[in-house]
Design a protein that fits this description.
Blueprint lengths: L23 H63 L5 H12 L8 E9 L20 E5 H6 L37 E11 L9 E11 L7
Antiparallel strand pairs: 1-2, 1-3, 3-4
Helix pairs in contact: 1-2
Amino acid sequence: MRPSPPSPPSPPSRALPAPRPLGFRARLRDRRERGERGAALTEFLVFVSPLLVMLVFGIIEFGSAWRDSLVVSTSSRAGARTVSNLGDDELSDYSAIASAVAGLDSIDPANVQSIVVFRSASPSGALPNALCATQSVPGQCNYYDYGTALAAVPADFQTATAATTCNGQPDQAWCPAGREKRLSVGPDYVGVRIEVHHDWVTGIFPHGGITITETTIMRIEPRIDT
């Protein structure tokens, strides 16, 4: 066998040239690119951050108002259900506002404006008289400010010498004794309306808050004529 020829010698390694320092134009271009990135970040902070903050605050405010609205709606249903079941009982209104007050315990009492028990012409009717939003109207509604509702006791609704008149009682404007419950005639529709002021939590919106009003109307449980 012939010996293999020797491999050719490898070329000598060359050291990589040292990087040249950036020229004036390259340094200027690099500085401008860094400045543009900084300007973009500044624009983001100036224009986008306030929008994000407002979005977060808006979510907080909406969630808080929605929660209070659910509380008021549930309390209104509880009051209407109570007065519907009791019908012409002398403690009908007292029991209704007591049920409503119990449901409003998570709301600042200073923000609860009123509870109104009223006679409605239909299951979807509003207040029978605009005055019912601020005062009792004979034959149509009983208006209770929240202080009266909180302080009410059963004896307040049992003082009349004649149970059919309710004279001198908080419910005398629309006395429970006069509410129709007979099946042959058709029982009355009775409603409970609650008005509450909701304060803004973050203070980012104007006017300090909004008014939440919830109304529930039910028919008095009918009784078979005797």
